[in-house]
Batch of 2 targets.
Target 1
Amino acid sequence: MKVAFFPGCLVDMFYPEVGMAAVRVLERLGCDVELPDKQVCCGQPLFNSGFGKASAPIVKNAIDAYADYETIVSLSGSCAYALKEEAMRFVGDDAAYRRKLSALAPRIHEFTEFIVDVLGVVDVGARLDGTATYHRSCHLTRCLGIERQPLALLSAVEGLSLVEMRAADRCCGFGGTFSFKEPEISEQIVREKTLAALECGADFLVGADQCCLMNIKGCLDRMRERGETNSPLRVLHIAQILDMRKGA
Amino acid sequence: MPVIYDEAPFKERVKTNLAKEFQHGAIMSAQDVITGKRDALVEAEPGWHHLRSSAAAIRAHVLDNLDFYVRQFAENAERRGCRVHFARTADEAATIMEQVMRDAGAATCIKAKSLLTEEVGVNEHLEACGMRAIETDCAEVVLQTAGSAPSHIVVPALHFDRASIRDLFRERLGYEGEDDPEEITRFLRSFLRPRFLSERVGVAGCNFAVADSGTCTLVTNEGNGRMVSSFPETLVVFVGIERIVPDLASLDVMTRLLVTSAVGSKLTSSFTLNSGPRLEGEADGPKSVHVVLVDNGRSDILAGPYRDALRCIHCGACMNTCPVYRHITGHAYGSIYPGPIGVVMTPLLEGYERTKKLPNACTLCGACADMCPVRIPLNSLILQHRNNLVDGGYVQGGERIAFEAAGKLLGSRALYGMMAGVGRLGMKAMTGKSGRVGEASNWIPVLKGWTGSRDLDPMKKTFRSQFAERQRSRQDGAGDADASSGVEEGGRR
């Protein structure tokens, strides 16, 4: 199956290894992965900050980039939600783009949902020894209703057991530009999230949205630096776990 | 200044309140306890989400036909012997209260907990006229005695612990007991009971007004509301025009949702339906009942893009789940409407000039909308505020320049490519031995917020170029050379 991949700008710039892991997983499952050269961003950083008008060219660029593909796989639930559900508010009155977007939106799938619901695969042949706790990212879980799929994928990873952290579905405090505009608040929220992950005793904190993971890892790194924890907890995107092959 | 009680800049309010350890802890545990109880009930109620949809539909229907229902309610209330007043503004509402007091020849009145009377400033207005409203809800007594602002719409004195209440009552009310809640409550009862029996005017809010029967309802847990509404000769009920339900069947739906969402129980200890003054042959109840229907901006809200916010039934569930409210606590909002619904309502009631930064108090996580019993799309309305603020020119300076530049960068593949390249070089210069962008980068304004408390991973060779390289090497016949390597690359450390 030919799929157009949407890594999201955060993965593109800061976490290419996560994007590459996802590409390998998709290819292993028989997908022919393409990356439209034109694609950049979903527009969310702008319209969520109130700059909806300034986001219109970004949204339109994303629509143009993916409009010709039958199936689009977004590595971020948040970017997928932005394009599927929110972008229409910010496209403006341009009827052509509105039409293109409403045709495009249902063809966008979030990575884990795509694997489980579209490809019909739960066991991707991954193996990782240890215990993982899953952070239920807000847009993915609440706004797109994708919860069962990532958990099913993780449950099928050989050697991996799951443990639930306290308030796993509470926001990590990232909130896009919120974390830069209101760092004092964001810091308190992410600290509580990180402590919950540490408390549950998992070896891996797993999520399906890299922006949350960047936030939590950033807090964890700083806590280590300050000597507040020496826990070996590792922060991993689910794509990275699914990329670890049995017998490799 | 009835709605906004703290005019300090938002950042400052956040800073002050983040530092209040007791308050912070109290809100966190209240959130956990209330939502814990609520979640358990919801789990045991398979029809919960259908009930929410019904409630949302009832509320939306009433708002779509508000002219009809206001009229129907008013006519039925009058038929039952109530005197119905219409107040367009907060001032008009408070003045009606003053006039009722003068007509009754009363200088004091007793009051059940009511947000609407706070919104229109009844207490302040009466005080300015040399009169006084005496609060009878335990938490409101605490706030009134201390001169403190509410920190939650349902449990407004959350920021007081029992020791501080003991000290407050000792100092101001002559209390001599310990910090035992029962003892404090017993004292309050002895303090309030004579008032219930002697005051001539009672003031209450109204959780829902039933249109087809002209009934005002009051949901309370302390029984004070029932005494306020049945002991004094004159009763004044303040009703927001949006708080109408068509009939008793819809009242049932709303009440079940309200109580479970507000306090995590199935019922409150008192549920009062007040349908007009005492009739001949009846043993109790007020002799005259004034119903004040308050608009105070609601008609304007109804006409605009925020209509859904008027579905609110004041249960507080949104603040009980909000991650931001959890940490900054009610007082950081500076408004009697805190939490997500406060972020939506305060700017609507008071205008953007004084509330410019309030919509920042949200991560757009959507937990509030998910919890809301009447399905108000709170996060979406907050997003609407942010966009209106920018479009209305309330966001200026560096922020505006930065975002508009970002719009150009992220909207163009070519410019984005350049930015990623320059950014990577720049970050190389900022990372130390750790390979992460840490506190040493605090001097860079855009990063400071982040690196003050967190490290940032540096930019690497972009995904885009790694992907392209891989495609090229495959075309060159290198085959599938990549081993799975997620952990080694991504899980450094």
Note: The radius of gyration of chain B is 27 Å.
Target 2
Amino acid sequence: MPFRLFSLLLAFTALARAMTVEPPTFPDLVAGADAVYRGHVTAVQARRVARPDGGGAMIKTFVTFAIDHAIKGAAQTEIVLEFLGGRVGDDILEVSGVPQFSVGDREILFVQGNGRQFCPLVAVMHGRYRIVRDATTGHDTIARDNGQPLTAVAEVAQPFHGPAALRTPANLAPALTPAAFESLISAEVRTPTPQAQTR
Amino acid sequence: MNRAALFRLVLAAAIALGAATGARAFSVLGIVWAAGEIPMQLQLGQPPSFLLDGSTDWDAAAEASLNDWNAQMVRSQFVAIRGSTAAKARGNSLNNVFFSPDIYGTAWGSGVLGVTLSSRSATTGLTSESDVLLNSTRTWDSYRGPLRRLGNSGLPDLRRTVLHEFGHVLGLDHPDNPTTGPTQFLSAIMNSNISDLDMLTSDDIAGVKSLYDLNTGPPTLVTQPVSRTVAIGGSYTFSVAATGTGPFTYIWSFQAAGSSTPSTLRLATGPSYTIGSVQAADAGTYTGAVVNAAGGFALTTPATLTVTPVTTSPDTLLINLSTLGTVGSAASQQLIAGLVIRGTTSKTVLLRAVGPALADFGVGGTLAAPQLTLVNNGGTTIAQAGAWGASPDAAKFPAAFTRLGAFQFKPGSADSALLATLAPGNYTALVSGMGGTTGAALVEAYDADPDAATSRTRRFANIATRGAVGTGAAALTAGLVVSGPGPHTYLIRAVGITLASTPFNLTGVLLDPFLELYQGETLLRENDDWDTPASPQAALRAAAIQVGAFPLRETRDSVLRSGLDSAMVVTLQPGNYTAKVTGFKAATGIALVEIYELP
């Protein structure tokens, strides 16, 4: 029975999530991304930065992401993603819905508006896909931000509590592998698609 | 340990524990408002036209959502300040609720309708300011019922959006995508995506009641857990007593000696917990938290358990291994016992498949006619037995049973037995039912060498039994008899989900086994997931490698885990023990119980 509240809480990087968001379709997810990267997190650091509107300082968390493969967008070796919120000393700024990262996490990220948006991912948590390895089989699979396996790109548009979330261990369809997901993303990148509608 | 962190822990863990038992399923952030009023500066202005639900303005719609939450709270209440002209700013200790084209200078992301920004103190755990911002680049309305569309876009409903955001202001998290704790799928306004749901559900209400229903002070501790030094095999009880307004939830954490990472002791959920047989991995500090329903809590001082080693004896033997399980009609539902004999010369063993005789011990639904088949590592059947009286060795059995301490079979009973002399290697004893009969059966293996000195040169090293685990009394139970001059160390495992993986690929496995080790009626140790707490993981992996056991399935990821099999390394004094395998939360399926002798 999975249960790791203690260690997770004591890690104390956890920020509250509180947001109303509409999940994108897969074409919107791809089209809306400035870049799509596969890689891993190498550093997570929060600090106070000046607000863009000159209204004082706010806490931001900077996630350094080493890029193994640029599926869409400019090839580069690293990107530092800026998320509003975090903890500095005794002060915690919680910004709703922002995905949480830890060093070593492997991801496919749909990056949008880094440094400009409060969360530099398309549709916030819907722009983050985890790469999960089963240590027994050695196989990598794709999971959504809440840990649910992604078995088809159509599930991208479903809310986390939607039908796809109701799978049980007994009837689990195999999750997409990173290679399969990347292939589908690449195919979508090559498909002329109207720009994702700003909601 | 950081007190604020522990506060967050105990509050979230208390509620998550409730969820784990089915009492609650909501998720919380582990942080709350102090008792009293929570003023909300409603600054949403006038809509361009009438609102579909008849609200006179945006603030009226928002106030209705505040009132929905207020109806569920006792110790705190939202206070709506409609038409507020307060400055819209961060760090002003005001809770601003307003439309904005950006989030204090940073852009909205695609698909985002609203967001809550909350400032909390890590020291006190209390919220000091929460602003709710709504995306003014979208066209809004306020209505009830299913979500509507406006052209190619959705038409966001302000009422349900702020109802969700105000839940976050109060400290509720997304149950379908929580910051901590298990992901849950249920109907809730607090789910992460806007939907047709436009009102609080029972889950939302249970969540807010857990945080704000009562106005009580924190519990007062009367007694604290006590530090002790215990030798391996001894027992240790940590306990706390508290006064105040209950009911209380008890949460215990363990930080292994030399580790900087504490773990929740998920099985310790009461005011006291006893480790019946302390092992080296138990050394460390134990800290308790007593939490009341309003989130008030008190922490114990950490108690340190120092574990002193004992000298194990290489001359101590496993002389008897047995497993009680249920035999079904399908081949996969046979009771299967694997034996490993270590040494250089052959060993004499007595194998028994007990069915009818179990009735004399109060076991119901016994297997009427067991059939015992012994197979070698190459898959060849080397012996088979039905009713013991029909065996060529029938005349030898009564004396052998007496010498080895086995109970006698009644004359003419259908219980099975066979004596075999086996070369070192791996063997499998299969227990099935004659003619497809089914029921409870016991498979036993006895060291039948003439004396202990001989036994020590060719040892029972392992027994593993596969069988079906059902609910109630239908557990898989393995007995072991440790005999010799001193303690010895064993690896005991209950394997379920790993059997579903390569190379086993079994179906119908027990996904989440639960392992308990008893001596008589005394519970010595229990384990649900072998990788929890984390501190014994390395020792368990090393022990498996040492005895040649297959690795248990594990997934290391920040969210997904599958270390659901159970395992323990225990040093046991000579005596009789029972390892019982059940399904966690009444799970059922095929499981394997294994006992390995560590060199």
Note: Strands of chain A lie at 19-21, 35-50, 57-72, 78-84, 86-88, 91-95, 106-111, 128-133, 140-143.
